[in-house]
Amino acid sequence: MTAKGVRITAVEKGSPAQRLGLVPGDEILSVNGRPVADELALRFYLAEEEVRIEVLRADGSTTEFGVDLSLDSSLGIRVEEFRTRTCNNACLFCFIDQLPPGVRANLKVKDDDYRLSFLHGNYITLTNLSGRELDRIVEHALSPLYVSVHATDPILRTRMLGRRKADDLDGKMRKLIAGGIRLHTQVVLMPGINDGPHLEKTVFDLYGYHPGVNSVAIVPLGLSEHGPAKHTYAPVTASYCRELLSQVAPWQEKLRRETGRTFAYLADEWYLQGGVPLPAAVYYDEFAQIEDGVGMVRRFLDDFNAEMRRRPRAKRQLRATLVTGGLFRPVLSDCIARFNRRFDSALQVVGAENRFLGRTITVAGLLGGQDIADALRSVDLGDSVIIPQESVSRVDGRLIDNLTPEDISLSVAKPVFASGRTVRDFFALLLDQS
Q1: 218 and 162: one domain?
Q2: Inside any domain, residue 89
Q3: For the chain, what is the domain count?
């Protein structure tokens, strides 16, 4: 029988679901008469204290249960994951099209799913959303959402997304904003294509939606050494970064005067590659776009300084090697030099060159396991190796080239640890080894 609702995969012991006799394999069809399309809808409808649940049993029969949830935090079930909506665009800059053979399988999925945008901050284009889905987003209050805009000029946006005709970006954004949905937007900047006057138009067009549009993140085009010929675009250079910073600074000053917020934020790469000092934390406001690389380094530096002040001395001298990408290496090296002086340790930083994707890819999160292992050859590693946490998938524990930290450990004959999600985790990892 074709699934119509959400299939139960596990039932918690002692839960309302178990008391009702629900079992794995049962399928929840509706809650209070409203069809359940996925876990998000189920979670939304179960927020009421008293509900009626229609269930399709394994034997094909349908049963309805009344449930009082006023004394329970949840129904007590786990359900199947929803099938990810995939992208229907052919973006000029699509990084997935630039991935080499052997890449981690889950990176090949071109998602464009508003549910993942709400749950995890994934960027969506809005191009594949129907009016019904827009209504659902508003009804279920799926806010904030993260929207890839790239250009507000319809012709330019159509070209960048690789579409045949323009989509109604303005109409969809206005409908969401009118429904109380807050939007964070993104511009992937391609030198010579959507920069200059195009970028200025995009930023101030999006400002016209403020406060419904809460922010704009401007991030650089990434170019690997793989993929179709269409990716022969101008790369981002250090001088280009400095020119962009100079162009955007007056806009940011104006926007901050008018709103009390920077509104248009530049990714860390522009500052690091351009050799320009990072802004203070106040520039990033609530760090809403940190997962897009906006303020990640500033947050690291401020948290590092705070941990340096609060941590006691190590019990014995630490000897370890930390690996990072070329972009972050100068920042981390400076921090570790101060750490060594403070804790009388012998840590060193090694920058790994990204040969898997290409030498122009310098961010730590895209390092492959083999490139890390190669960078560590002929190096006195000390007692252990620490690799960037962001290079290891939260889903399956693998790096981009499908290797694991254990694979690296076997290659270098040293224990290999991921650095942790926070700076506090990082300090705990280091000092717990002392």
Answers
A1: yes
A2: no
A3: 3
On average, the pLDDT of the chain sits at: 93
Mean pLDDT for 108-113 is 91
CB-based contacts of 214: which residues, under 8 Å, 6+ apart?
A: 144, 182, 183, 184, 288
Q: Are residues 305 and 358 in the same domain?
A: yes
Q: Tokens 């310098």 belong to which residue?
A: 362
- Between 72 and 337, the more confident residue is 337
DSSP-assigned beta bridge partners for residue 62: 56
Residue 148's nearest CA partner among 198, 91, 108 is 91
Tell me what the mean pLDDT of segment 108-116 comes to: 92
- Consecutive H or E run containing 65: strand 62-68
Residue pair 145/115 in contact (Cβ under 8 Å)? The answer is: no
Residues 17, 46 contacting (CB under 8 angstroms): no
β-pair partners for 184: 146, 215
Phi and psi for 356 in degrees, rounded to 5? Answer: -65, -45
Query: Which CATH number do you get for residue 54?
Result: 2.30.42.10
**What residues contact 190, with CB distance under 8 A and at least 6 apart?**
92, 93, 160, 221, 233, 234
Both 285 and 143 in a single domain? yes
Domain co-membership, 190 together with 333: no
**Cα–Cα distance between 229 and 231 in angstroms, integer?**
5
What would the pLDDT profile of 188-219 be if each residue is shown by its tens digit?
999 999 999 999 999 999 999 999 999 999 99
The answer to whether 87 and 110 have CB atoms below 8 angstroms apart is yes
Distance, in Å, from the CA atom of 181 to the CA atom of 138, rounded to the nearest integer, reads: 7
- In the predicted structure, residue 431 carries a pLDDT above the cut 80: no
Same domain membership, residue 210 and residue 274? yes
- What pLDDT sits at residue 1? 41
User: What are the residues whose beta carbons fall under 8 Å from the beta carbon of 322, sequence distance 6 or more?
Assistant: 332, 336, 347, 348, 349, 350, 385, 386, 419
Nearest residue to 358 (alpha-carbon basis) of 273, 235, 276, 241? 235
Q: What is the dihedral of CA 387, 391, 397, 402, to 10 degrees?
A: -110
Q: Are 115 and 82 in contact (CB under 8 A)?
A: yes
Please give the angle made by the CA atoms of 111, 84 and 150, to the nearest 5 degrees: 25
pTM: 0.90
Domain boundaries, position 206: 96-293
Q: Which of 170, 166, 159, 15 is nearest to 77 (CA)?
A: 15
Phi, psi values for residue 186, rounded to 5° = -135, 145
Residue (of 136, 208, 131) closest to 172 by Cα position: 131
